[in-house]
């Protein structure tokens, strides 16, 4: 495995946001675009999400996943669905066993309240009761409120990055951002327990994300690996940073300029791992196709036009879950 600094380009968002001239901004966007074209991953520093928010999110995830399994299953993820709690042993979701628990929620405050309410229906102590706010400390400690705060901030960050990456291709970013401003985006909270057979087990099998962009917050345990040139590269965590990767939809919008990279998660024989992934999804009715500004006689479209709803549904079609990136086979334009 190579050192992470040789794999993931660091992006200082504060510098991008405070550029003094159009020339400076243009060069920074060019560098950002080049990094995404090469690896499909970025590490964000000075991203604007406070270290206190990330700390509180980590605390609430530890509390949530330490609950008994029967309590967590009060909010199950049904077959052919994406919202709710699941474990890697759920055969209706995963073809292969993985060492993983997750809770996935729409970026909709009602969805967050509904699911956290099933874990602590009577509050479970004021610190979890989002209807009883005693003081500011209790308010900030509430599981539902922390998740909603993080979801809003990370979705806004995803839209900002989508703006930068499409602008770098000389495209009108508003045509892409408006697809992802609704409540169809999702937050997935991930828990990877200690595994005695870590060398022979995965927390997530190799896959690519079917969104536009993914924003990942993780603890300092590590486990994320990305594939390039048929080799796996381990990504070392860095405190108070976020990872960003290109998803299938941005690969299509960019006509394969930005690659949706295959990645997986290794597990640990000594430490538990937590992460939170914000998936920036278009709305279900969004029509997806390569940007017309990137298509000409020398650069023909590589993908057909399709509805995101139909593409997303294909994710649950049997073996599509089990094999990395087969979904492109449904929409690629063959030579």
Which CATH-level-2 architecture?
Answer: Sandwich
Assign an overall shape.
globular
| Low-confidence residue ranges | 1-5, 122-141, 318-324
Radius of gyration: 20 Å
How would a crystallographer describe the biggest sheet?
8 strands, mixed
Under CATH at level 1, the class stands as Mainly Beta
Structural class: alpha+beta
How much helical structure, as a percent, in the residues? Answer: 25-40%
CATH homologous superfamily (4th level) name: B-lactam Antibiotic, Isopenicillin N Synthase, Chain
Report the average pLDDT across residues. 84
Beta strand count: 14
Number of helices: 10
Tell me the series of helices and strands, N- to C-terminal: EHHEHHEEHHHHEEEEEEHEEEEH
Please explain how this structure is put together.
With 335 residues, this protein is an alpha+beta fold. The protein has a single domain, classed as B-lactam Antibiotic, Isopenicillin N Synthase, Chain (Jelly Rolls, Sandwich), CATH 2.60.120. 30% of the residues lie in helices and 20% in strands. The chain has 10 helices and 14 strands. The chain has helices at residues 13-17, 22-39, 51-65, 69-72, 109-119, 136-141, 143-167, 174-177, 248-253, 308-313; strands spanning 9-12, 41-45, 84-87, 101-106, 186-192, 202-207, 213-218, 224-228, 231-234, 242-246, 263-266, 273-280, 287-288, 306-307. An 8-stranded mixed beta sheet has the order 1-2-10-7-12-5-4-3. It has a 4-stranded antiparallel beta sheet with strand order 6-11-8-9, with no helix packed on it. The chain has a two-stranded antiparallel ribbon with strand order 13-14. A hairpin with a 2-residue loop joins β8 (224-228) and β9 (231-234). The longest helix has 25 residues, at 143-167. The chain is globular. Residues 1-5, 122-141 and 318-324 have low confidence and may be disordered.
